[in-house]
Specification:
alpha/beta, Rossmann fold, DNA polymerase, domain 1, 6-stranded parallel beta sheet, hydrolase activity, acting on acid halide bonds, in C-halide compounds, 2-HAD
């Protein structure tokens, strides 16, 4: 379903981390802190992040379903062990506490306020736990109407069950929602398989499109959504 000549949505759903919240920047800070505490100078931050991401994504799709706090701690432990570094019980708390404190991108709060003023209802759909994301949502100026997490759905993106659960909870059909996200790997696969409209916020992080899917619009920052929607008559 394309945006042009399609109906104005009732709800806008958002990926949180990387779209609204400064995920990459916050994750680097957390991993820097962990490596510094270990005196691990031979392993650089980007290497640990890459290995951590691989383990995290694999665990998210491996039964049984685990809370994000548990999963993140296990993925970090596995990544540290793979790189020959010691893991301890404080590592997971350092990571998840940092995630909760990650701030929004500079344009996000004002953009969300303007979208609210335009009459849209706003929902976050995120691969996390309710208590982890609460600190991030608190920084969004009271603009978010609903928060739907992997914890609630019992499934992590790109598993379509998280989006199916979200649409059921919101009571929307596909033509009543537009999803706005930054992660091709996690969100675009679901958009392709389910058929909901999707706007990609490509912040120049190096993430690339899936070979068999192209989003309905591509923008460099969230505030571009305002002009896009106005151009569509929404």
């Amino acid at each position: 379903m394309s945006l042009e000549h399609s109906p104005r949505p009732l709800w806008l759903t958002f990926d949180c981390y990387g779209t609204l919240i400064q995920w990459d920047e916050g994750l680097r800070a957390a991993i820097d802190q962990i490596l510094t505490a270990k005196g691990a100078h031979r392993v650089d931050t980007e290497t640990l992040i890459s290995v951590y991401d691989r383990h995290e994504h694999a665990l998210e799709q491996t039964p049984p379903h685990r809370s994000f706090r548990t999963l993140a701690g296990l993925a970090l432990q596995q990544a540290l062990q793979e790189l020959g570094l010691p893991a301890d019980e404080h590592d997971a708390a350092t990571l998840t506490d940092r995630i909760s404190a990650m701030p929004p991108f500079p344009e996000v709060v004002q953009t969300l306020k303007q979208l609210k003023a335009m009459g849209y209802r706003l929902c976050i759909v995120s691969n996390t736990d309710d208590d982890v994301i609460a600190g991030n949502v608190a920084q969004l100026g009271g603009t978010i109407d609903r928060v739907i997490t992997a914890q609630q759905a019992g499934a992590y993106k790109p598993d379509r069950r998280l989006f199916d659960y979200a649409h059921e909870q919101l009571g929307v059909s596909l033509e009543q929602v537009v999803h706005i996200c930054a992660s091709p790997h996690l969100d675009h696969a679901a958009a392709r398989d389910i058929g909901f409209r999707c706007v990609w916020i490509d912040r120049g992080t190096g993430r690339t499109l899936l070979p068999d899917y192209r989003p309905d619009a591509i923008l460099p920052t969230l505030d571009g959504v305002l002009g896009l929607f106005k151009s569509l008559g929404w």
